[in-house]
Amino acid sequence: MAAQTFDDRDGWIWYDGKLVPWRDAKAHVLTHALHYASAVFEGERAYGGKIFKSTQHSERLRHSARVLDFEAPYSAAEIDAAKAQTLQKNGFVDAYVRPIAWRGSEMMGVSAQHNKIHLAIAVWDWPSYFDPAQRMKGIRLDLAEYRRPDPATAPSLAKAAGLYMICTISKHRAERRGYADAMMLDWQGRVAECTGANIFFVKDGVIHTPTADCFLDGITRQTVIELARRRGVEVAERRIMPEELAGFSECFITGTAAEVTPVGEIAGRKFTPGALTAALIDDYAAEVTPKSKAA
């Protein structure tokens, strides 16, 4: 039986203010966003019927839109309500949530200042981003050929669709070489992130993570840093060079899809998922679980 595709399934998508049948949520082939990447999006998860840090994600979506020189046509509160409505309409309790805002098809060309801004929200069942058996051993990362761009050349701090082009290329290459993902360097050759997740290292009980000034400072990243500090663990946000990898004992990545995932190898460099990584996996699971459910 063929795998279910994302354009042909039952369900409902919130589209420009109303819920429409999943198969009817369409955009024209001459949509500006398709040709010029004028789109921003979020990746969120619902746990126990509650979307984790929903408002923070909605505010970031609106901020990303402004960085791309357009205004999302709904407030953060309205987007929060629409996400909750979509989750409920589809009957999901645990789900992935994908809001996206984009320029429409009124004008085709680089300049499209008067194109309509659309906003849609889809939810679907999406379990672990990586193979569960591989995940607990520590996933294997390749080293990406492409680098995160200089923030003077791209809107690096927005969650903009166009910035993920090199991520797709890099992840495909890594998968063809037998890896789960790839670690990317920044434009100056320093450790940056993975194709869709932030990265952390452990040495002598201290967590080290790259300074998020040329890539997205993930909401999961921020959450895990807070969880580590609650434990009294020092977190150093700093420049990390690739040659430092040999000195770290543990490595893990974070993201809405990846959650907290241990890393066992980066391009031949080995790591052993340890007690600190395991503790943060547990802490994150507890943090995202609605408190009424956990009680």
What features would you describe in this structure?
The chain is an alpha+beta fold and 295 residues long. It contains eight helices and 16 strands. The chain has helices spanning 32-36, 54-67, 76-89, 132-137, 165-176, 219-230, 275-288, 291-294; strands at residues 12-15, 18-21, 39-41, 44-47, 50-51, 95-103, 117-124, 139-143, 181-185, 191-194, 198-203, 206-210, 235-238, 250-255, 259-266, 269-270. Strands 8, 9, 10, 11, 12, 13, 14, 15 and 16 form a nine-stranded mixed beta sheet that branches. Strands 1, 2, 3, 4, 5, 6 and 7 form a seven-stranded antiparallel beta sheet that branches. Helix 2 (54-67) crosses helix 3.
Can I get a quick summary?
The protein is of the alpha+beta class.
Fraction of residues in helix:
25-40%
Distance separating the two termini? 41 Å
The percentage of residues in β strands lies in 25-35%
Beta-strand segment tally: 16
Give the uncertain stretches in residue-range form: none
Q: Radius of gyration from the CA trace?
A: 19 Å
Order of helical and strand elements: EEHEEEHHEEHEHEEEEHEEEEHH
Using the alpha-carbon principal axes, give the shape. Answer: globular
Task: Report on the biggest sheet.
Answer: 9 strands, mixed
**Helix count, per DSSP?**
8
What class do helices, strands and sheet pairing give? Answer: alpha+beta
Nearest-integer average pLDDT: 94
Features:
seven-stranded antiparallel β-sheet, 8 helices
